[in-house]
Amino acid sequence: MLLKNDLNSIKTFVKKGNVLTKEEELYCYAQDSMNTNEKSVLPDVVVFVETIEEVQNILKYANEHKIPVISRGAGTNMVGACTCPHGGIVLNFSKMNKILDFSPENMTMRVQPGVVLNDIKELAERENLFYPPDPSNFKVSTIGGSIAQSSGGAMSFKYGTTKDYVLSLTVVLADGSLLKLGAGTVKDAVGYHLNQLIIGSEGTLAIVVEAELKLIPKPEACRTIVGYFDSFEDAVNGVNGIIKERVFPATIDFMDNNSIRTVEEFYPCGLKTEKEALLIVDIDGFENSLDIQQKYVESALAHANAAYIGVSANDIWTARRASFAATARLAPDVVSDDIIVPRSELAKMVRGCKNICDRYGLQVCIVGHVGDGNIHPQIALNLENDSEFKNYVAAKSEIYELALSLGGTISSEHGVGEAKLSYIENIIDNEVLNCMKQLKKLFDPNNILNPGKIFKI
Ligand SMILES: Cc1cc2nc3c(=O)[nH]c(=O)nc-3n(C[C@H](O)[C@H](O)[C@H](O)COP(=O)(O)OP(=O)(O)OC[C@H]3O[C@@H](n4cnc5c(N)ncnc54)[C@H](O)[C@@H]3O)c2cc1C
Predict the structure, then answer these.
(1) Looking at domain 4-92, which CATH architecture does it have?
(2) Greatest CA separation found in the chain?
(3) Whose CA is nearest to atom 16 of ligand 1?
(4) pTM score
């Protein structure tokens, strides 16, 4: 709980009108897109920051007075990465949303943390350039949140994740000091890559106030091929077959039968609701290369017993990206998980996950970026129903155990936040975990940056 003095001091650091303190204003900052049946704690204050200096002053004060500071972009992460279990100050970056510099010649863009990913993509595309990371909600999520989660998306298969597109970061440390990490050049072999340490650290090590991003040439053309299958196993064989043909698609995404049916009901677009699995394969490159790529992809899918193969209009992606919203119509709550296994174990993972949910009477719609071995089981339930909640917790543990036993892990792109904190000690070696904790201590000795996330201290 902040003292009145603290509030008065914080108000002096920012413009008038940029501070929220009323309970009804704080309420929505107690949550993000993680669904939980636990009572959320309100932050003490929300501050809309507009300059780097404001962020520095707030952190300096918070560090001296040991007040938690939680950074917030669009609040869309799914793991409770920007909730406030210990109250504190929420820094809202929505007013630091400017693109500061765009150099088509160097293929770079310098941005503030509150810029929405779609704005970066659209500006780059005007110059035939491309910023590939594409979490399904890229039309609303911010680059600050994306860097802090190292967001991926469907394009990760060919183009990698956020970590592959950050050239430098300007960050404010817990004590308010300002550092630029990385030279901003495409290659940089001078010392440790500290910017890569910040990426994916969920706002627990430093606060990002500027980022220099790498862009790449935009492929001239893209074509979407769909393949429907009567079994997951055939669909996974289809994925492997494509790769054996030496085609490198931009995406290989997946929807299971429950997702296909749920989405078709929500957003009718002619999905084949009787099929067990759908693969969505984007091929890209020069226009005149697409026919040959398509021939190889179709032959691989046919070889894997695809029941239907076709070229699709773009609304297949609208359908795929609507899967979370569509699943949310099945029950009062939906919890989206994030599992990754080696691609060779994918069919066992999908089948196992479905069996576990069936056994516990839970509705699950599975989608995923299967080129990477990454699936998102989306479980629809009523979290306030005690027995459903217990079943969900038990099923989740079994799903995680299965992922680990298959050589995978329990988060590939959504992060840890609060949601997976209690599992991390069983997953990471003690020595590695200690190393992480020492790093946290070095960066943030008073544990003010997003406390209660990633691991217990
Ligand atoms: C429908 C839906 C679909 C999604 N699909 C995908 C997907 O396909 N792939 C994928 O990877 N993810 C996906 N996500 C999750 C996605 O990673 C996050 O939504 C997004 O990256 C978070 O951006 P945000 O602006 O909402 O950040 P927030 O949720 O506000 O914050 C996320 C984390 O970043 C920290 N943070 C925010 N700003 C800063 C800053 N300036 N400095 C330091 N830390 C900061 C926060 O403290 C928090 O830890 C999806 C989410 C939804 C709701």
Answers:
(1) 2-Layer Sandwich (3.30)
(2) 70
(3) 77
(4) 0.96
